[in-house]
Amino acid sequence: MQPGGKKCRNLVVVFRDQLDHDSRAWCGFDRENDAVLMAETDEDFRVVWAHKRRIIFLLSAMRHYRESLRVKGFRVVYHELSQDPSLERGLTFTEVFRSFVAELKPEKIVTVLPGEWGVHERLKTLSRDLDLPQEVRPDDHFLISPEEFLELATGKKHYLMENFYRTMRKQLGVLLTPDGKPTGGRWNFDHENRLSFGPGGPACISPPKGFEPDTITKEVMDLVEALFPNHPGRIAGFDLPVTSQQAHEQLDDFIEHRLASFGTYEDAMWNREPFLFHSRLSSVLNLKLLSARACIRKSVEAFQEGTVPLNSVEAFTRQIVGWREFVRGIYWMHMPAYATMNHLGHELTVPEFFWNGETDMACLRHALTNVVEHAYTHHIERLMVIGLYALLLGVSPLKFHQWHLAMYTDAHDWVSLPNTLGMSQFADAGIVGTKPYCASGNYINRMGNFCNPCRYDPKRATGRLACPFTTLYWDFLDRHHERLVSIPRLAFQMRNLERKRTEKAELAEIRKQADTLRDDAP
């Protein structure tokens, strides 16, 4: 722990996902009388094991940000993880916080609203226990505050993301004609953005721009290898952006090389292609190394210059202006109860192969290998391969969220909970999505090239060659029939189930095979 030095007026606490140089934390900052507190603690990496690349990314970005603040003349007190093998554990954030407060004796704590409800509550408790005033400032990185979102959503039986997205487009003036109509005459082009690649596969794709680890990052890589040698994931090949400048370079690279095809193929998958036309910007966005406004501005400019089509720019805009802001609003609106929701009553643990990718299901092996190697998969693999299997199998939604939080560089509580527990696992009974995203192996076969070769046949639900996705799909619909039958968007699937139910022998065999899959899952 680095010495704090003289007493301070305001102690500005910066969390690992608040690396924003335009943050309100710096409004009125006095270089002579204020100080900044940043802390690396291993409690987050040990309670739920974290992917090695996730740890490297977070710590390297924090240390680079610390150095940039010091260059500006800010006084930064910073707690680093120790490589001392004699230490049974590192200090917790609470212990670090209390120590620095005792030394610096600040008059007030200043924070920007944390990204995690639990952190926000813990800091409030610490401030109260220490009789220390706390000022919580809005996070201007986001386009709407939790209070503004609550005002929009209050009184609505079901607040649809699409309605929120249109409201945000109007408020921000994004992709609108002079008379306030959506550019191109439609609010979204989702139906045009579901193409698969066909048997020939994708054309030549420029991979996301990578960055050679510098001295700081190499030091962190050595630290992670020393402290967390048995954690999942691989260190070799780490090339993520860890500074604001690098994040902007990655944005420019995406717009120049992949945005034009992003919209059309955003739901497509292909074996041994981990990134396709996706941006891989969510990690730096969620650390605030890159602003949502910069992403919107630069992508819209590319459309106006005629270098990218409207369907791709609209799709990218929807991810940021619509979905990203929507799930944050849902998070703050429903926490802390949201984390305990389990509408379908699923309780299984995450299968062991989720941590290492060692499965004979080709699609899951591809997606999970991407997670192990890159701490990343694009959204359709998360939702319709990994998340789908967890849903159909019956994994506890909270445990699935914890796995996701451990394994992805872009995962933080506010974004992961609504995406995993809500959108993916339908544990919130439809707060985020209007139906469970359930499908058989046929969907995966249609959107990618995993099923040939694969030992399983996506068309079969029973027998030695039956695809586990297809078996579990019919079992899922049958097990939860009473909950699902009244959902309008599942009407077609439930009618198909009724036809299956007339073949009682086949459905009994499906149930038996599904039970075996669940018994073998751990």
What does this entry show, briefly?
With 522 residues, this protein is mostly helical. It has helices spanning 43-46, 52-71, 93-104, 117-129, 146-153, 161-172, 215-227, 244-257, 259-262, 282-287, 292-304, 310-334, 362-374, 379-393, 397-407, 413-424, 441-447, 468-479, 481-484, 491-501, 504-520, and strands at residues 10-13, 35-39, 76-79, 108-112, 134-137. It has a five-stranded parallel sheet with strand order 3-2-1-4-5, sandwiched between helices.
Account of the protein in words:
With 522 residues, the chain is mainly alpha-helical. It is 47% helix and 4% strand. It folds into 3 domains: 10-137, 3-Layer(aba) Sandwich (Rossmann fold); 146-208 and 258-334, Serine Threonine Protein Phosphatase 5, Tetratricopeptide repeat (Alpha Horseshoe), CATH 1.25.40; 352-520, DNA Cyclobutane Dipyrimidine Photolyase, subunit A, domain 3, CATH 1.10.579.10. α6 packs across α12 (310-334), α11 (292-304) packs antiparallel against α12 and α18 packs across α21 (504-520). A 5-stranded parallel beta sheet has the order 3-2-1-4-5, with helices on both faces.
Give the topology.
Layout: E1 10-13, E2 35-39, H1 43-46, H2 52-71, E3 76-79, H3 93-104, E4 108-112, H4 117-129, E5 134-137, H5 146-153, H6 161-172, H7 215-227, H8 244-257, H9 259-262, H10 282-287, H11 292-304, H12 310-334, H13 362-374, H14 379-393, H15 397-407, H16 413-424, H17 441-447, H18 468-479, H19 481-484, H20 491-501, H21 504-520
Parallel strand pairs: 1-2, 1-4, 2-3, 4-5
Helix pairs in contact: 2-7, 5-12, 6-12, 8-11, 11-12, 12-16, 13-14, 14-18, 15-16, 18-21
